[in-house]
Amino acid sequence: MSKGHFNAHAKDYDQYAHIQRRIANTLLEEVPRQIAPKRILEIGAGTAYISQKLQERFPECKLLVCDPAPNMIKVAQEKLGKEVEFQVCEIPSKCDGFDLIITSMAIQWVNDWELWMKKIAKFANKNATILIATPTLGTLNFLPRAFELAQLDYRGLAYRDAKSLKHAAEQKFSKVSKFTLPFSESFDSSVDFFKKIHRIGANVEEEPLSPSQLRKLIKECEKLKTDNILEARYEVTFLQAQKLC
Question: pLDDT for 200-223, tens place per residue?
Fold first, then answer.
């Protein structure tokens, strides 16, 4: 998925990103009650829903909000104001000293989780908390089958298992724990599913489909409905870790 898709749909994102907000709220519940972070980093922040909630909870903290899509950052700036620092980037450079690092529905696009954890560890203070939510194996599992039925090579994201996320975190952090929860959205038609994905700037394919290929894919998705409903299910893994040294 390219940042250009998200960039083009930044203004519509909050209106349609319902499941992303539910996942973000679940991640926010995992922020430890006893911490009082002085500096917080949100990576892949989108329109900064999470940072907005953290700003309300920790009004004295300093926030750095990062996202690779400039228009997402513009929307975030409108929400959070001038007191917050923003960077248009996937990962900030030459920045450290954070007590809480948080990211939701972003690192599924990271190719090398171990390398990502290594970079993040450099930003974390001693005893910093790391919180991650990301879709893992089993997410949108009707799509590979639909591609197969449409006689198309699968071009979607290959979701990795939760164990590999935990393993990557354990290379740099301590007290690593995880759990996985299902989140679902139901659609009356496959067309509605693809429209919803498009409206938040996402896409189900890594390489563009031609109009005829997309029609074939939608047709096969229709055949995979249950009781005339297409269920888009996300298996989301929530991970918490701590940097002890």
Answer: 766 655 667 899 999 999 999 999
